[in-house]
Amino acid sequence: MAPPIDELTKEGYDLQFGTNVIGPYVLTKRLLPLLTAGAKSSDDKRARVVNTSSTAQLFTDTIHFEALGDVPL
């Protein structure tokens, strides 16, 4: 948690943002075909993705989007 601000993902995004936001998004997108297929054979015909977070977000009041990576805002 809280890596140095200059640590980046290989794509050039802030490391913590990449780990805590982009990573779960990409994993979910890649799992969607399997989740959809699995839902068809489940009793309730549903699949779930459960996202969790840390209470560390309570220690900040803003996101500095310009620091997240070299992307247009």
One letter per element, helices H and strands E, the order comes to: H
Structural class category: mainly alpha
State the shape.
elongated
* Percent of residues in beta strands: under 5%
CA gyration radius, whole angstroms: 16 Å
Uncertain spans, ≥5 residues at pLDDT below 50? none
Tell me the number of structural domains. 1
Fraction of helical residues: 25-40%
Please describe the biggest sheet, giving its number of strands, its sense, and whether it closes into a barrel: none
- Write down how many β-strands occur, each being a DSSP E stretch of 2 or more residues: 0
Helix count, DSSP H or I runs of 4 or more residues = 1
Mean pLDDT reading: 86
Gap between N and C termini, in Å? 25 Å
Q: What labels describe this entry?
A:
single chain, mainly alpha, 73 residues, elongated
SSE topology:
Layout: H1 15-41
Report on this structure.
This protein has 73 residues and is mostly helical. It has one domain. It contains one helix and no strands. The longest helix is centred in the middle third of the chain and has 27 residues.
Question: TL;DR?
Answer:
Helix content is 37%, strand content 0%. It is mainly α and 73 residues long.
